[in-house]
Design brief:
Layout lengths: L14 H19 L2 E2 H14 L3 H15 L3 H10 L4 E2 L3
Antiparallel strand pairs: 1-2
């Protein structure tokens, strides 16, 4: 994995929502660092969207995540949505 950094979380989220969002952040990180199963990534993305349905909030979290990690949630999901391979890997 990469250097440790803080995931952008919101105080109003429940513990279950924090776990869901953190799992998605980890999936994005894996997509950049080692590759992740396409289906697993999309499942985690759909769960993330249940917690963060508003596009405005998704964009804010993406900016914070990019700033903290160097990885773009937007770019990862954009590639994942058009990926036809079993594994999602970004460089």
């Amino acid at each position: 994995m990469t250097d440790s950094f803080a995931y952008p979380l919101r105080p109003e989220w429940t513990t279950a929502e924090i776990i869901t969002v953190s799992a998605f952040y980890t999936a994005v990180e894996k997509a950049y660092t080692q590759g992740i199963n396409q289906e697993e990534f999309m499942t985690k993305y759909q769960a993330y969207r249940q917690v963060v349905p508003a596009i405005m909030d998704q964009k804010q979290l993406d900016r914070e995540f990019l700033e903290n990690s160097g990885f773009s949630i937007y770019q990862a999901t954009k590639v994942a949505q058009s990926n036809t391979k079993k594994t999602l890997r970004l460089s």
